[in-house]
Amino acid sequence: MDDYVDLRLGQLLEMTAAEAPAPGAGSAAALAIALAAALVAKVARSSRDSWSDGPGVAAQALELQSRCPTLAREDTDAWRDALTALGGPDGTSGREAALAQALARAADLPLTIAETGADVAGLALLAAERGDGSLRGEAATAAVLAHAGVRAATHLIVINLATQAGDERSARAERAERVAASAAASALTVEP
Asked: Domain residue spans in the chain?
């Protein structure tokens, strides 16, 4: 299975609740962002009569949504690889390099998740501002879900890069988090 699209929701929840380390937080963040993007698409599609850019925004949201299940699966794989590298024999010359590579990948994927979420949060704000007034609750919810996914992914990057102070990925994730936080806060204040 390439991603989590073919799973039933119950299966995914069961896998996430299991004792196995993955899917975990990164996958959950990506899937929250996918739900947010779906809500943006709903608002944009339903606002065709009142919002001329609605179809374009819906297409953008659906494109971002389509990335998320694969990101969730890749994050699971990266986390498993990192755990395997962490459990490798100490003192071996290849362990340090394998661990560094695995942790770098485990930081790269949450960064992609965070930046995708920031884009979704921006579209959600646009949907809250311009979409049909009866659907602004969906748009605000999308912005909040996207922000939550971005915030979670950013936290994972901080954890994975704990020993690499000043890494640009941390700064990029923090920028994405600020963008998503601002979009969510603004979307919650838009009057219906």
From this structure: 23-189
